[in-house]
Design a protein that fits this description.
15 helices; 7-stranded parallel sheet; alpha/beta; 16% strand
């Protein structure tokens, strides 16, 4: 498919061709006409899908002519590194420096940035908190902004920069709003809902990488916060008959201690920590001792300075927290012929981006499992647990429904225990009756 499909101007087609972009990406085909037509758009796609190039092209097409005093496009990105990346994309496609483009982040002096804005610019690429500071100092005029773009919105939420985004978006009330993200979840929806129009189009490009290796069955629990994670872990592992030998991975030894203390009155030696911080905790310094001890059922392991760990032969691998490097998790889930293992991942909305990257890397989706009916879900705003009601109507957005839609075949009108659900899913994966 040629670039003609995007209906770009001749200079932009030439710039794209010179840059080596000979065919349009799927996300560009699906979003470009809507953005150029003035519609508010939420575009969801994985890393490398072409999101940045899409809005750079759309911005250059929308503005048409250059050199006005007040900016007409404001692009918000999560950090200075993303500012540099976007500026490079504009430099690649903004032939003859037709438009004046300014990058704003914390590396610059506020007074200097104020002068640069007042000298005149067409497009500003900025981090939200610095852009807000300049707006409050009356240096950033948002009255003429035609295109308000939020890129890597999931990372902006992760950094806690929602407030400046909303304030700037509301100040640019005449503008068209476009949001690009790798995942869509409740916290992100909460940020953008105050300024996105009712007619907003949500477009998702669901690209998955080629399958790299055979991995164990992958199950995913999506929970709202850390405290609910603890409740879920305890609830699952109470089923000692099913979860008979388990390794639970966390990121730090302090978190391992927190998880360990969350279990109420376990049998002596049943719950233990690998290389514990404290000598009086039940623990093992050698995982082979854990494997061979029939009384030891759950081992909590911190990724912190862990190195290699032989977990072959353990039937359940639980990632309570996602490791900083996705490769760490992937190495643990590569299938060995002699093992029958179920790998379960716990994820909050903020961690969904890491789940997405793992799925892209292994070329396989994780199966989302319904939260147990008797799970106590903690409301983060009040820190008080609330029990999920059996007859309560499901709010799928609460568990990131836009990230994984539930298939009709997965809808059930009967309930199983958490352990039974995991077992059934595992059997289905294995093709067992």
């Amino acid at each position: 498919m040629s670039l003609d499909k995007l209906k770009l101007s001749k200079p932009l087609v030439a710039a794209m061709t010179d840059a080596g972009f000979l065919t349009p990406k799927e996300i560009q085909i699906k979003t470009m006409s809507r953005i150029l037509g003035g519609q508010d758009v939420i575009a969801v796609g994985p890393e490398g899908a072409g999101k940045t190039t899409t809005y750079v092209l759309a911005t250059l097409m929308k503005l048409k002519y250059a050199f006005e005093e007040a900016p007409r496009a404001l692009i918000l990105v999560p950090d200075a590194e993303h500012v540099d990346h976007v500026l490079e994309q504009f430099k690649l496609l903004n032939r003859n420096n037709t438009f004046r483009i300014l990058g704003i982040d914390s590396r610059g002096v506020v007074e200097t940035q104020m002068n640069e804005i007042t000298d005149g610019c067409d497009i500003i690429v900025a981090v939200p908190d610095r852009a807000r500071a300049l707006y409050l100092k009356l240096a950033l005029n948002t009255n003429k902004i035609q295109l308000f773009i939020v890129d890597n919105a999931e990372l902006i939420v992760k950094k806690g920069l929602q407030l400046p985004v909303v304030e700037l978006a509301n100040s640019a009330y005449k503008s068209q709003h476009v949001v690009f993200t790798e995942v869509l979840h409740e916290k992100l929806n909460h940020m953008i809902s105050p300024f996105m129009k009712d007619s907003t189009a949500t477009i998702e490009v669901d690209e998955i990488g080629e399958k790299q290796a055979e991995v164990y069955p992958q199950l995913l629990y999506q929970v709202p916060n850390f405290r609910t994670k603890l409740n879920l872990l305890t609830l699952l592992l109470n089923d000692s008959e099913f979860f008979d030998k388990v390794v639970v991975f966390v990121n730090t030894r302090l978190t391992a201690q927190t998880v360990y203390k969350n279990f109420n009155n376990p049998k002596e030696g049943e719950i233990s920590i690998y290389r514990s911080l404290f000598f009086d905790d039940d623990g093992f310094d050698d995982i082979e001792d854990f494997k061979s001890n029939p009384e030891a059922r759950v081992l909590i392991v911190a990724n912190e300075n862990l190195g290699g760990l032989d977990i072959q032969g353990i039937p359940f691998i639980l990632h309570f927290e996602l490791p900083e490097q996705k490769e760490t998790l992937i190495q643990r889930i590569v299938k060995h012929e002699e093992d029958e293992v179920v790998a379960i991942t716990f994820s909050t909305d903020i961690e969904l981006i890491e789940v997405k990257k793992i799925e892209q890397a292994i070329g396989q989706r994780m199966d989302v499992i319904d939260l147990p009916e008797d799970l106590k879900i903690v409301d983060a705003s009040t820190a008080k647990p609330k029990k999920k009601k059996k007859d309560e109507e499901e709010d799928t957005s609460e568990r990131g429904a836009a990230f994984h839609d539930k298939k009709a075949s997965n809808v059930k009108n009967y309930n199983y225990s958490a352990g039974t659900k995991a077992k059934m899913t595992y059997k289905n994966k294995k093709g067992l009756s």
